[in-house]
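Example (one chain per record):
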Amino acid sequence: MQKLKVINLALKEEITFDMSGNVLLSHIEGLGIPDVSAEKTQAVLQDGSDVHGLLLEDRIIRLQATIREKDRQRLYELRRKILRIINPKTYNSKTGNKGELLLFYTNDDKTYRIYAHVEDSVDFNSRFLNHMVVDIIFTANNPYLLDEENTKLAIKAFFGGLTFPLKLPDYFSNIGFQRTINNEGDTEVPLLIQFHGPVLNPIIYNDTTGESIKINRELEEGDTLEINTSYGNETVDIIKKDGSRENVFNWIDVEHRDFFKLIIGENIIRYSGDDESNIGTIDVEFSIMYGGV
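Predicted structure:
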C-alpha cells in the first residue's frame, strides 16, 4: 500500500492520495535515488578523471491520481480543493519558504517526510462521468526523505567522577553523561543541541569523530542554549526564562567549535561541564536522512 499526504502549512489543509476514497493514487515515482552529479577534474592528457564529490540533484516526485465524486458539482469542488492546497504561491508558515508543502509518503514499511513545491503546470487531463485524472509533479530542493518525526534524545547515561581505590589525581575526571546514537540513514545528520542550565562551560563531544562544541559561559537555572549544526544555517542562541532569544555565537570556544553532525553508523555522544555540582542537562534533536526508499 502506498499513499501520499500533502499538507499546506499556511492554510492548515491537507489532501491524501491513496488506494481508496475519493482521491485515488494511480502511480507515483521519484522516491528512489535522485539524479547524481559528479564534481570532477581532468588534467591535460589524463585518461579518465578524478572525482572529488558526488552530489544529489533536486528530487522530482511525479504522481498520477483519479478523483471521483457522486455528482459533477462535488467533483469540481474536490478539484478546486486540490488546486488550492498545492498552490505554488503558498508558503511554509514556520520557515517562510515560498511554495513549500509538507509531504508524507507511506509504503508497507514506514512513513517518510519531505518538503517540496509544485514547479510545473497542473491540469486535470480528462473527465469520464464524475471522474477526472490529474498529473502532479513536486520538486524537493532538499532531496533527502526524513523520518516521519524528529527524534529527540536526552544524554543521560552517567560516566566519570571518582574511581576507588582513590588515587588522586590519576583517577579523577569530570562528571558527565554519554549516549550512543546510531545513524541508520544514508548521509550525515545535523543536530539541534539544547543545553539546559545550571551549568558552567558546557561541552559536547562526538567521541567517534573527535569533534566537540564548547560554550565559555555559565548558564543559569531556566536558561537554554540552543545550537543548530545544519550546514549553512549554523546558529547559537540563548533562550532566557522569559522566552526571549539572543544570538550568542561569540560564546563558542575557538578551540571547540566543530558544528559536528552524526556520521553514518555509531556515534558516541558525551557531555560534561566544569562544575560537577551543577551539571545541567542536554537534549539532541535530529532526523535521519534517506537518499531513497
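Caption: The chain has two domains: 3-147, 151-290.
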